[in-house]
Write a structure and sequence with these properties.
There is one protein chain. This protein is an alpha+beta fold. It has helices spanning 83-92, 109-117, 164-173, 191-195, 236-251, 264-281, 287-301, 347-362, 436-451, and strands at residues 3-6, 16-22, 29-30, 35-40, 45-49, 54-59, 65-68, 72-77, 100-101, 118-119, 134-135, 254-262, 307-310, 315-318, 324-326, 328-330, 333-335, 338-339, 376-380, 399-413, 416-430. A six-stranded mixed β-sheet has the order 12-21-20-19-15-18. Helix 7 (287-301) crosses helix 8. The protein is globular. The relative contact order is 0.12.
């Protein structure tokens, strides 16, 4: 009997999914556990695996179709079954749940720019490498120095710096990325390079001169014509963000506390860690990794903040492990991948694991368990130059830390005005669970951790 693969519930709040892309076509042999399609849930676009081995006999939902959870999307012919007979049966008689095409979401130019050129900043500036995605400038360093390998296709012996999205497009279109000149940070190949023919390196000219990459086409901003309007339907992710954050602001009594932190000791620590790991192991520790380690250590010291609140049962749950959520900007919304047990990691492992999980978040290749179970969240806009801001608590967590930019400021030390690298962070708290004194203790402890980094080892 053929196996009907139904739309799975890939998130706790998912009621329907959009079939974004088929990774297999009718007639393809499928292994158990193999990714068969990409599905847009209410949180992200995620790969969907097939639980049975066999042959894809019939596709019941076209790309772009909306499907309720539990409705069939395709039919798998199991071992010994005739594929053509099953396909004919479903084509003539079987009527799965109706799938309606999803309205394509329109991506603003700024969001598209973030998708194409986004980097985990890892350079020498104090802001670079904090736990967030930034729109990197050409001066930023490339992904290859972040402690994980860049993409490499077609058996090329040379490692190629390429964004996850561009790699995916190149693989789908069978494009040889070794012949493309990247226009992203540090020569990184980004989406427009694999879609735009002018991104290819021209053949060597006569006389042995070195080939020069063609100049990329200027991207014109999308404009709404004068006198007209444009309506954009929210995608699933944006709808859930709107719903959850509205509920958070309406139902959770927020309060905010801020503190300034002298980051000079953290910057000095980073230099020492770079000397220890960069050349020998290719791992480039960032300021963001040091902040993440300090947050984890602070949560262990102030366990009231490492907690969730169930308003239905009026129960607070405190955790012995720190699962740190890291807010990551996507072209169409926001996602919070979770770095589990970060309190048990050293700086090198934090760099490697955070780079991997953020990279896969941008490529929309996270697993369900990597998007849930956070005990505390950090949101960083410092890499974009934001001095300070207030974040909204992500329930059922009881707090979220907003990280601002590290910048040179004039401060008073020993009666003298001196330049110091300072950073402002703001803690948002659920006042039903957290009081002002607990929040102040958390921030003062974090300040001590970053100004005296040896305290993280205590």
């Amino acid at each position: 009997m053929p196996f009907e693969l139904n739309m799975p519930q890939l998130s706790d709040t998912m009621t329907e999914g959009v079939l974004v892309k088929w990774n297999k076509k009718e007639g393809d042999v499928i292994k158990a556990g193999e990714e068969i399609a990409d599905v847009e849930t209410d949180k992200a676009t995620m790969p969907m695996e097939c639980s049975e081995a066999g042959t894809l006999a019939a596709v019941l939902v076209k790309e772009g179709g909306k499907v309720p959870v539990g409705s069939p999307i395709c039919v798998i012919a199991l071992k010994g079954e005739k594929v053509e007979e099953i396909k004919a049966k479903y084509a003539s008689g079987a009527k799965p749940a109706t799938a309606t095409p999803a309205a394509p979401a329109k991506t603003p130019v700024a969001a598209k720019k973030l998708e194409e050129g986004a980097e985990i900043a890892v350079g020498d500036h104090p802001n670079e490498g904090q736990v967030a995605i930034s729109d990197a400038s050409p001066k930023s360093e490339a992904n290859s120095s972040s402690g994980y390998p860049s993409g490499d296709t077609n058996g090329a012996s040379e490692r190629v710096k390429i964004s996850p999205l561009a790699r995916r497009i190149a693989t789908d279109q069978k494009i040889d990325i070794t012949k493309i000149q990247g226009t992203g940070p540090g020569g990184r190949i980004v989406q427009k390079d694999v879609l735009n023919p002018v991104g290819f390196v021209s053949a060597a000219p006569a006389g042995g001169a070195k080939p020069q990459p063609a100049a990329p086409r200027a991207e014109l901003p999308a404009r709404v014509a004068a006198g007209s309007t444009e309506k954009i339907e929210l995608n699933k992710m944006r709808q859930v963000i709107a719903q959850r954050l509205q509920q958070s602001k309406q139902n959770i009594p927020h309060f905010y506390e801020s503190i300034d932190i002298d980051m000079n000791a953290a910057v000095d620590l980073r230099k020492k860690l770079l000397a220890a790991y960069e050349k020998s192991e290719g791992v480039r520790i960032s300021i963001g990794d040091i902040i993440a380690k300090a947050v984890a250590s602070t949560l262990k010291a102030v366990p009231q903040m490492n907690a969730t609140y169930d308003e239905k049962t009026s129960t607070i749950t405190r955790y012995g492990d720190v699962n740190l959520g890291m807010a990551v900007a996507l072209p169409d919304g926001l996602i919070v991948p979770v770095l589990r047990n970060i309190d048990q990691m050293g700086f090198k492992e934090i760099r490697q694991r955070s780079a991997d999980i953020v990279d896969r978040a941008r490529a929309q290749r996270l697993k369900r368990e990597e998007m849930s179970g956070a005990t505390f969240t950090v949101s960083n806009l410092g890499v974009m130059g934001i001095k300070e801001f207030n974040a909204i608590v992500n329930p059922p967590e009881v707090g979220i830390l907003a990280i601002g930019a590290s910048e040179d400021r004039a401060v008073v030390r020993n009666g003298q005005i001196v330049a110091r690298t300072m950073m402002t962070v703001t803690l948002s708290c659920d006042h039903r669970v957290i009081d002002g004194a607990v929040a102040a203790t958390f921030l003062s402890t974090l300040k001590n951790m970053l100004e005296e980094p040896a305290m993280m080892l205590a």
